Amino acid sequence: MTTRRRRKPVLFWTAFGVFLVALATVGFWWRTSSNGATGSAQRRGEHAESSDSTAVVARGELKRVLLLDGDLRAVSSRAIFASTSEEAKIVYLPPEGSTVKAGDRLVELDSGTILGKIKDAEEKIVAADNEIVKTRSTDESALRDLEVELSKLWLAFEQAKVNARAPAQVLSRREYQDYQLALEKARTEYDTQVAKIQQKKKEQEAELQVKTIQLEKLRAQLEQQKANLEGMTIRAPADGMVIYSDHWFERRKIQVGDVVWGGFPILRLPDLRAMEAIAQVNEVDGPKLSVGQRATVTLDSYPDVEITGTVKDIAETAIKASWMAKAKVFRAVIALDRTVPEIMKPGMSAQISVELPSTPVSQSSDASASSARQSGLVVPRSSVQCDNNGCWVIRTENETRRQVAVTIVASDAVSYGIADNGALKSGDRILVRNN
Question: Does the pLDDT of residue 370 top 80, yes or no?
């Protein structure tokens, strides 16, 4: 019994000691973690402060811009048309977007039909030529027969003239009259035969002329077909990039297998050395644009490249934005200050920002106040912070920082216009977040 009583205090104090050690360990760990978190927070705060810069509150006006969708096109380009007078199928086109040199093959049309027509025309020419030779031979034979008959009539006419010259005193009255009648008859038959020969010659000449005209027509057709054959292969008149034309009916690009005819536009060769932008302006925004306004063009494929330009031309009438669209748009041409041929290609989509007249910043919290027309306070967007309770900026002065509530009355892409209520003044320095 005595041994058991002695063991109870020992076990109690042992357990109590273990508890104290554990409690001290937990307290030390908590203090270390708290100090580490505080140090990290302080370091983050110092880093944040060191990453911030300052800006100066100034008076100014907010920039207004009109954002438009558009695409690029060449200032000048050559249209390539089919030169054949007959319908023909396209059998070769270079890939769209490929660059060609002057003299390179651009378009090749199916020449099978043309070759067949050339062979047919050559055969018809040979037949027509033979027909002319045959006609001339036949006409000459017919004229010889008529001339033989004319010779006979000439002899009879000469004999009649001799008989008719006999004096009436040596002939009976009846004989004399018979000779005179025979002379008139011979003269009439001779004159009739001469007229017949002349008429026959005219008929033969007319017939020969018709056949000759037919022959010349066949030869002209042959030359035309040969010219069409040469036109089956179209070569590039100058260096450029291949852009297919739109199909006249199916709302797609021209492609191999399409049938074209003379004068049909097949493709274009734009000059890549000078580009311009074509913007589509909603008819509601049309009155905001005017020639001479400055613009900035940003390519969708190269968002880091900005190219400035000027509104050069605005269409007088609105057109449908697309075949199915009900909305109408104006086409505006933006002349670019520079061209980067390495990245700029016709048809590339772009975002176009047109600068509109600046908007004055209201001097009061009422943005619609008509009396506020002078320049107001403008601060960078990155300097303003907002929550459910309002917006504020951090003003710095003599290495001290103070939160100042502000009221936003206007804005643009980079700045806020704030009410000039005395909380800030021009020249104050404020913090700007860099990230």
Answer: no
Going by C-alpha positions, the residue among 434, 411, 418, 398 that lies closest to residue 57 is: 418
Q: What average pLDDT does the structure give for the chain? A: 82
> Which residues 6+ apart lie within 8 Å of 272 measured at CB?
74, 240, 241, 339, 341, 344, 345, 346
For the segment 161-169, the average pLDDT, to the nearest whole number, is: 87
Q: Does the pTM of the predicted model rise above 0.70?
A: no
Closest by CA position to 52, among listed 428, 393, 386:
393
The DSSP output letter for 166 is: S
pLDDT at residue 156 greater than cutoff 70:
yes
Nearest to residue 98, comparing CAs of 343, 269, 347, 348?
269
CA dist., res. 403 & res. 431, Å (int): 10
Q: How far is Cα 332 from Cα 66, in angstroms, rounded to an integer?
A: 13
The letter for the amino acid at 123 is E
For 269, counting Cβ atoms within 10 Å of its Cβ (0-12 exposed, 13-18 middle, 19+ buried), the class is buried
Q: How remote is the C-alpha of 250 from its chain's centroid?
A: 17
Q: Tokens for 234?
A: 């179209």
What pLDDT digit, counting tens, does each position of 12-60 carry?
666 666 666 666 665 555 554 444 434 443 443 344 344 568 899 988 8
Instruction: Mark 101-122 as b/e (b = at least 16 C-beta within 10 Å).
Output: eeeeebbbbbbebbeebbeebe
- pLDDT tens across 231-243, in order? 788 899 888 889 8
Q: Beta strand 376-380 with 240-241: parallel, antiparallel or unpaired?
A: unpaired
Any idea how long the chain is? Answer: 435
Q: CA-CA distance, 383 to 406, in Å (whole number)?
A: 11
Strand partners, 79: 268
Q: How far is CA 35 from CA 56, 187, 288, in A?
A: 37, 151, 61
Please answer whether residues 375 and 409 qualify as being in contact, where contact means their C-beta atoms are separated by less than 8 angstroms. no
**What pLDDT does 364 receive?**
44
Joined together, the tokens standing for residue 380 give 């960078």
| pLDDT of the residue at 31 | 54
